[in-house]
Amino acid sequence: MSVIGDRRSREQKAKQEREKELAKVTIKKEDLELIMNEMEISRAAAERSLREHMGNVVEALITLTN
């Protein structure tokens, strides 16, 4: 049981670290609105995509269209 608990704990910690790093990425409001309007997705989804692509709107749009 402790092996499963340790693994789950490590995965949770890695996920939290990833979220912290994504939160540090600055994104432009204009880019966020562009993605929301063009792709017709929620603000949260658009923001997540932009943050995952380090604020690069072109890369975010390419990923969303594929």
TrEMBL record:
Ranges of residues in domain Nascent polypeptide-associated complex subunit alpha-like UBA: 25-65
GO BP, sorted A to Z: negative regulation of apoptotic process; protein stabilization
Record region (Disordered): 1-20
Superkingdom to which the source organism belongs: Eukaryota
Coiled coil: none
Name under which the protein is recorded: Huntingtin-interacting protein K
